Amino acid sequence: MAATTIATVRKSSVIPGFGLALGVTLTYLSLIVLIPLALLFWRSASGGPEEFIRISTDPRTIAALRLSFTTSFIAALVNLVFGMILAWILVRYEFPGRRLIDAVIDLPFALPTAVAGIALTTLYAPNGWIGAWLQPFGIRIAYSQTGIIIALIFIGLPFVVRSVQPVLEDLNREVEEVAATLGANRRQTVRRVVMPALMPALLTGFALAFARAVGEYGSVIFIAGNSPYKTEIAPLLIVIKLEEFSYSGATTIAVLMLIASFLVLLAIHLIQSWSRRRYGDV
C-alpha cells in the first residue's frame, strides 16, 4: 500500500527527484528543528522529574510565563484590530503619503529589536517625550506591563497587516456591490461578505504576531523594568538562569514556553480550519 502511494506521487509529480527532495527536506528539518527541540526536552529532563516540577511550579516562573503570554495575547488582539483597519485603508483608499506608510509598516522587520526598545523607552520613560506629559496624570507606561504591551504591539503589527493586505487586494469588490444591490447594508456586507473572506488571514496574522511576541526579548527588556514577579518576562528569566549556570532551569522554562505556545497555535489552527470549512476559500 505504501509502495503504491509513493509510486503514485512519483508518477503525478512534474518535477523529477522526489526521493532526493524528500530526503533533503527531512534532513534539513531534523537538523534545524527536530534535533534541537529533542535535545531541549532531553536537557530539561536531565535533573529528574522532581527538579522539573520544582522549577515549573516556582512562583517566579509562573509569574514570568503568565506575564509573557498575557501581554502577548493582548498585543496580538490589538494588532488584529488595528492591523486590519490599517490594511483596509492602504488597499481601499488613495491618499498622499500612502506609499510611505506602506513602507514604514515593515520597519519593525528591519529594525534591531534593541533599537526599538531604546526608542520606545526614550518616548515613554517618566522623563521621555511622551512619558513626561503623562507623568502628572499618574499614567506610567515605561517600566510597567503597559510598556511591555506597547513594545509587543510595535514588533507584531506588520504580521497582521501583511497577512491581510494581499487578501484584501484579491477580494473582488463586485461581490460587495452585489450584496448592496440585494439589500444588504454596510454592516451586513462587512459581517457576511468581507469578514468570512478575511478570517483565515486574520487568524494567520494573529498567530504570527502572538508567536513573535511570546519570544520577544530585545525590545522588551529596555522598557519593562524587569522586576521579578511584576515585569519580568519569561525569555529574560531564561537568560538569568543561563547566567546563573542553571541550564536545567533555563531549558525547563523554555520547554514550558514551547508546550504552551504549541497548544495556543494548535487551537488557532483548529479555529482557522473550522473557518475554512464553514466559509470556504474566498
TrEMBL record:
<feature type="transmembrane region" description="Helical">
    <location>
        <begin position="245"/>
        <end position="268"/>
    </location>
</feature>
<feature type="transmembrane region" description="Helical">
    <location>
        <begin position="20"/>
        <end position="42"/>
    </location>
</feature>
<dbReference type="Pfam" id="PF00528">
    <property type="entry name" value="BPD_transp_1"/>
</dbReference>
<keyword id="KW-0812">Transmembrane</keyword>
<comment type="function">
    <text>Part of the ABC transporter complex CysAWTP (TC 3.A.1.6.1) involved in sulfate/thiosulfate import. Probably responsible for the translocation of the substrate across the membrane.</text>
</comment>
<comment type="function">
    <text>Part of the ABC transporter complex (TC 3.A.1.6.1) involved in sulfate/thiosulfate import.</text>
</comment>
<protein>
    <recommendedName>
        <fullName>Sulfate transport system permease protein CysT</fullName>
    </recommendedName>
</protein>
<dbReference type="InterPro" id="IPR005667">
    <property type="entry name" value="Sulph_transpt2"/>
</dbReference>
<keyword id="KW-0472">Membrane</keyword>
<dbReference type="InterPro" id="IPR035906">
    <property type="entry name" value="MetI-like_sf"/>
</dbReference>
<feature type="transmembrane region" description="Helical">
    <location>
        <begin position="103"/>
        <end position="125"/>
    </location>
</feature>
<feature type="transmembrane region" description="Helical">
    <location>
        <begin position="193"/>
        <end position="211"/>
    </location>
</feature>
<dbReference type="InterPro" id="IPR000515">
    <property type="entry name" value="MetI-like"/>
</dbReference>
<keyword id="KW-1133">Transmembrane helix</keyword>
<feature type="transmembrane region" description="Helical">
    <location>
        <begin position="137"/>
        <end position="161"/>
    </location>
</feature>
<comment type="subunit">
    <text>The complex is composed of two ATP-binding proteins (CysA), two transmembrane proteins (CysT and CysW) and a solute-binding protein (CysP).</text>
</comment>
<keyword id="KW-0764">Sulfate transport</keyword>
<feature type="transmembrane region" description="Helical">
    <location>
        <begin position="62"/>
        <end position="91"/>
    </location>
</feature>
<dbReference type="InterPro" id="IPR011865">
    <property type="entry name" value="CysT_permease"/>
</dbReference>
<keyword id="KW-0813">Transport</keyword>
<comment type="similarity">
    <text>Belongs to the binding-protein-dependent transport system permease family. CysTW subfamily.</text>
</comment>
<feature type="domain" description="ABC transmembrane type-1">
    <location>
        <begin position="65"/>
        <end position="268"/>
    </location>
</feature>
